[in-house]
Amino acid sequence: MPAGAPGRARELDDELGSQAASIILPSSREVLARVRNYLLAQNDRADGRNNVYKDLRSGTSGNVVTISLGPLFDKGPTDSHFYLTSNSRLSFGITLREANGRCSLIAYRFHLHLPEGSASSFYRFDLNPRPHDTPLREPRCHLHPGSDDMRLPCPPLSPLGVLDRIFLVIEPTLSS
Q1: Would the pTM count as exceeding 0.70?
Q2: Residue 11 sits in which domain range?
Q3: How far apart are CA 125 and CA 56, in angstroms?
């Protein structure tokens, strides 16, 4: 391994953690409402084939709030996935913490499974709740470009920022 690589990875991971901590969100109720409205608008573009009101869920445990849609681990198509125009399927989980009058992002996992014949089988955006012991292999915030074993560091995004990348960057390339 090249000299200094683990140290550089740890420095990058520390910076990604600081960036994640700096993401200021409205209340968890407002985050849920914004995610729901975003998905409802996208569902209109997908001919209304998804039941956002049924499939989008939230839960609270103390000051931790979860927002989810579909299975956390994609093991095949389900009725609870969000289906895009390209026939890709989306599932996700978002974990937030409300404390001292603010809402912060703890973790997320957005999994977009692509249709057959795509150059990649899936994209997954992950923000882990805490740093890993080996950030060179497992950065705190990373993208899986079609392989569970490949994790490329990426900046932490707000939940709507991830949805923007999925619906406005990845999806158009699949539908063209």
Answers
A1: yes
A2: 5-175
A3: 18
Q: What percent of the chain has pLDDT over 90?
A: 78
Closest residue by Cα to residue 105 from 97, 113, 116: 97
Overall average pLDDT of the 8-24 stretch: 92
Q: Which of 143, 146, 145 is nearest to 157 (CA)?
A: 143
Q: What domain count does the chain have?
A: 1
Interacting residues of 58 by C-beta distance below 8 A, sequence separation 6+ = 28, 32, 65, 66, 67, 68
What letters, b where the CB count within 10 A reaches 16 and e where it falls short, cover 74-111? beeeeebbbbbebebbbbbbbbbbbeeeebbbbbbbbb
pLDDT tens digit sequence for 137-152: 889 999 999 999 999 9
Cα–Cα dist 41/8, whole Å: 41
Pick from 128, 139, 125: which is nearest to 5 by CA? 139
